[in-house]
Structure formats: structure tokens, C-alpha cells
Write a structure and sequence with these properties.
This protein is mainly alpha-helical. It is built from 5 helices and no strands. The protein has helices at 2-56, 58-78, 88-114, 120-148, 151-170.
């Protein structure tokens, strides 16, 4: 008798566990597919940006990447009505990551252009530490900002911050900073 009473619960549990495993597996496969696609696109973009840096300079490519990022954040904020469109969120995340890769490659190229060969590794490590600190600082400031604005307005703030960074970098001349030690 006891087995008969527990059987429906066990069947439900098995179905639930099986369904969860299937959903989990599907989600993992979907995420891996997205990551592989994103990584391959990122690598191709990095190569393309590298070639463009050789042609147009790291500072110009960084400004272009920052302006693209600013425009993307502005478009996301303005497109709030379409946020529930199926497939839009993953596409937007891929675009944000790809533009982030563009900015990262350009930033590294800019930093390496400022570094002198004799102290390049140390100087580059300092620049990267400052870049990492700025990410940490931005993450710490986000909750305070989030409490003051609505979600779509957050994208306007991000757009303005990135646009300001583009203005600052556009006034920056890395050639004037490179000096040989000694």
C-alpha cells in the first residue's frame, strides 16, 4: 500500500527531474552555441580591428569603437518597446560583446603604443591595472545609479558615459606621452 501511495509522487518527481535535466541540457547547449559563435565572431573582429588599427591608428579605432558602443546603448534604451521581441536580447548581448572586443583590442594597441620597449611589460601592466580598477569602480557605482533611474534610462546614462570617454580619447595624443627612460 505504501508503495502505491508513493508511486505517483515518485513518477512526478522523475518527470520533473527529467524535464529539468532536458531543459538544463538544452540551455547549456544553447549557451555553448552562443559562446562559440560569439568567440569566433570576436576573434574575426579582433583580427579586423587589428588590421584597421594599422591603417587608422589605435586612438581613432578606439574612438570609433566607443562611439559605436554609445550609439548601441542609446538604441537599446530607445528600443524599450521591442525588448520582449524573441531573439533580440541574445543579439543585443552579442553586439555589446563584439563592440567590447573592438574597444579592448583598440585599448591594448593604444597602451602598447604608449609603452617604451625597455619597460613595456611593467608599464603595460600598470595601464591594464588602471583599466581593471575602472571596471571595478563602475561596478561599485552601478547599484547607486540603478536606484535613481529606470532600466531604459540606465542605457542613456551608459551611452553618455561612453560618449564622454570617446570625447576624452579623441583629444588624447599618445605620441606626446612616449618617453625613453633615463
Amino acid at each position: 500500500m505504501r508503495l502505491e501511495r508513493e508511486a505517483p509522487a515518485r513518477v512526478l518527481e522523475a518527470v520533473r527531474d527529467g524535464a529539468l535535466r532536458v531543459l538544463f541540457a538544452e540551455e547549456v547547449v544553447h549557451r555553448l552555441e552562443e559562446e562559440v559563435l560569439e568567440r569566433q565572431l570576436g576573434e574575426a573582429l579582433g583580427l579586423g580591428v587589428g588590421l584597421l588599427i594599422d591603417r587608422f591608428t589605435a586612438a581613432r579605432m578606439l574612438v570609433a569603437g566607443l562611439l559605436t558602443s554609445s550609439a548601441l546603448y542609446l538604441a537599446i534604451g530607445l528600443g524599450e518597446a521591442w525588448w520582449s521581441t524573441p531573439g533580440l536580447a541574445p543579439a543585443v548581448m552579442i553586439c555589446i560583446d563584439l563592440v567590447g572586443q573592438w574597444i579592448f583590442v583598440s585599448t591594448i594597441a593604444l597602451f602598447m603604443g604608449v609603452c617604451t620597449p625597455s619597460v613595456a611589460a611593467t608599464q603595460f601592466a600598470v595601464y591594464m591595472a588602471v583599466a581593471n580598477f575602472s571596471r571595478t569602480l563602475g561596478s561599485a557605482m552601478f547599484p547607486s545609479l540603478e536606484a535613481m533611474v529606470e532600466t531604459h534610462q540606465m542605457f542613456y546614462v551608459l551611452s553618455a558615459i561612453v560618449f564622454t570617454a570617446a570625447l576624452i580619447v579623441s583629444r588624447f595624443d599618445p605620441r606626446g606621452l612616449r618617453r625613453e627612460p633615463g
